[in-house]
Structure formats: structure tokens, C-alpha cells
TrEMBL record:
Entries under Gene3D superfamilies matching the protein: Diaminopimelate Epimerase, Chain A, domain 1
NCBIfam families named among the record's database cross-references: PhzF_family, PRK10281.1
Name this polypeptide is given: PhzF family isomerase
Keyword Isomerase found: yes
GO cellular component: cytoplasm
GO molecular function per UniProt: isomerase activity
Length: 300
């Protein structure tokens, strides 16, 4: 028997259509096989598509799975924003907390109702920030990205950070260089096979401005040449800042705003908050707005 599936395209980390980061959302995915979810993700051709399944009473409210056009990933920031935005819209939810099961664990998502619209805050997964990568690997990465060594920030070690889905953090000194990068995607894919990290987040810092971070994220190993606005890059970046003491560690919380997507015409803004205990990051939250680009139904 055929079933009608409710499908949305949502632009996350923005209130303006056709900016921010687009994510597919299948609001009633129960009954879809893994292969069919992958086909739908490939057809929608967003960096990620979220598939919503029913919750389990007493354990979690909703189970969300995330697929790129190439594979399933454990968690995704912008698709979590999109998925919970759609769920809140469909249910006409009031402000509150939703417990979401993901491949990175069971995590809370805060829903803030605002004049008939919603802002979503996602608590990310386990915080892990590694030691700097071996120098030869660092040099391979910056060569593949097209970054001259002298343009690296010396206070920003090239290291992997994760809140459920890891990224390599690369700080550089010039915004113009950030916007002009043309990476060797095949080489980045090959490096990913050796580092077991599929994403590269290149950023500049602007402590004199309201927006601290401007960034770009490349993850060709999982089929994402460039991601417009990445929760699973900016969240780990906050943990990285705390770990490496860039903005002090003698506080209980560190917050900042980041802008991403400028170089590809899909600018969006994300807010990051890092809880700190004993000078170390212990919990990361990201907050974003969203807007529905379109919705449809598909009979399968």
C-alpha cells in the first residue's frame, strides 16, 4: 500500500528564503527503508535531509535520522534546526523542550515560540577536542585548501573538534582569503580517509565586531563540496576556543555569533554557547532561526 510522505525544504539559520543552509525534512518517515531515505536525500540534493520517526514513550519524543546525498551521518546541526522547526509548525507547539534521539545520542532541543514563529536551540553531543594534527598532515591540509602557511593564525592550532560529528579547525588571518579559497576537493577527500574526519572548517576571527566568526566548511568526503552554515562546525569551534584558551577559560560560559555562507551567496547566522567547568568545555548549544522554502507530498 502506498503512503503519502510530507516533505519540506527549510532554510536554517535565517528568516530569509534562499539564504542560510537548506535542509530537507521528511516529517513522517515511518516505513521508509534506509535505501529509500538515501534516494530521497539524493533527490533533494541538500547537504543533509532529516527523517522524523515517532518517539518512544518515557525515552524520547522524536527520533531523527540524517542523510547526505551519499551516506547517513550521526547528527546535523542545521537539519536538526529544520526538523524541529517543521515539527513545531505542524503541531502549533508552545515554547518547551523536545527530547530528540539521534546517532549522537538522546539530546534536548529547546523550542522558543515567537509571534507564530520559532527559534530552535540544539544541545549538541559529547564534546571532544583533540591535540593538534601532526605537522605533515597540517601542511597537506592547508595546501589542499590553498592557504599560504604565513596566513595561518598562530594562536589557532590545526586540530579536530567534535560535538558528535568532527571537523578540522583551521584559523586564518584574512577575510578576503577566506572568501577566495578554491580547495582541492579530491585531495581533501583523500586526507579525510586518513584522519577519519570528513570536514574542514576554515575561519577568521573578529573580536572587535558583534559577529566573532566568519567561516567556510568543506566536506567532500561525504558529498558536501561546501556547506553554507554548519552547526556541527560552529558548535565544535566553540569547544575548541575554550580548550585552547583563545578567549579565556576563567568563566562558566562563553557565547558568540558566527556568519557563514557569504562566499556562496547563502549567508546565515548562528549563535553558539559553551558551558565551561574547570576551564574545559562540557556542553555546547547552538541556536538558529528558520524559514520554510517549500513543502510538498510524495507518494511511495
Amino acid at each position: 500500500m502506498k503512503k503519502s510522505y510530507r516533505i519540506y525544504q527549510v532554510d536554517s539559520f535565517t528568516r530569509e528564503r534562499f539564504t542560510g543552509n537548506p535542509a530537507g525534512v521528511v516529517a513522517n518517515a515511518d516505513g521508509l527503508s534506509d535505501s529509500m531515505m538515501l534516494k530521497i536525500a539524493r533527490e533533494l540534493n541538500n547537504s543533509e535531509t532529516a527523517f522524523l520517526f515517532p518517539g518512544s514513550e518515557g525515552e524520547y519524543d522524536v527520533h531523527v535520522r540524517f542523510f547526505t546525498p551519499r551516506c547517513e551521518v550521526p547528527i546535523c546541526g542545521h537539519a536538526t534546526i529544520a526538523a524541529n522547526y517543521v515539527r513545531a509548525l505542524e503541531r502549533g507547539m508552545a515554547s518547551g523542550v523536545v527530547i530528540q534521539k539521534t546517532g549522537a545520542g538522546i539530546l534536548p532541543v529547546e523550542i522558543q515560540s515567537e509571534d507564530g514563529d520559532y527559534t530552535i536551540t540544539m544541545t549538541q553531543g559529547e564534546v571532544e577536542v583533540e591535540e593538534p594534527l601532526p605537522l605533515p598532515v597540517q601542511m597537506e591540509i592547508i595546501e589542499a585548501l590553498g592557504i599560504p602557511e604565513e596566513k595561518l593564525r598562530r594562536d589557532c592550532p590545526i586540530a579536530i573538534a567534535s560535538t558528535g560529528h568532527s571537523k578540522v579547525m583551521i584559523g586564518i588571518t584574512e577575510l578576503n582569503l577566506l572568501h577566495s579559497l578554491k580547495p582541492d576537493l579530491a585531495k581533501l577527500t583523500e586526507i579525510s580517509s586518513r584522519t577519519s574526519c570528513n570536514g574542514y572548517y576554515v575561519f577568521t576571527l573578529h573580536p572587535e565586531e558583534a559577529t566573532l566568526v566568519h567561516g567556510r566548511m568543506f566536506a567532500p568526503a561525504i558529498g558536501i563540496a561546501e556547506d553554507p552554515v554548519t552547526g556541527n562546525a560552529n558548535g565544535p569551534l566553540g569547544a575548541y576556543f575554550v580548550t585552547y584558551g583563545l578567549f579565556g577559560t576563567n568563566k562558566e560560559e562563553f557565547s558568540f555569533e558566527a556568519v557563514q555562507g557569504e562566499a556562496i551567496g547563502r549567508m546565515g547566522k548562528i549563535s553558539v554557547t559553551v558551558a565551561i567547568k574547570g576551564g574545559k568545555p562540557v556542553k555546547v548549544k547552538i541556536t538558529g532561526k528558520a524559514v520554510t522554502a517549500f513543502s510538498t507530498e510524495m507518494e511511495l
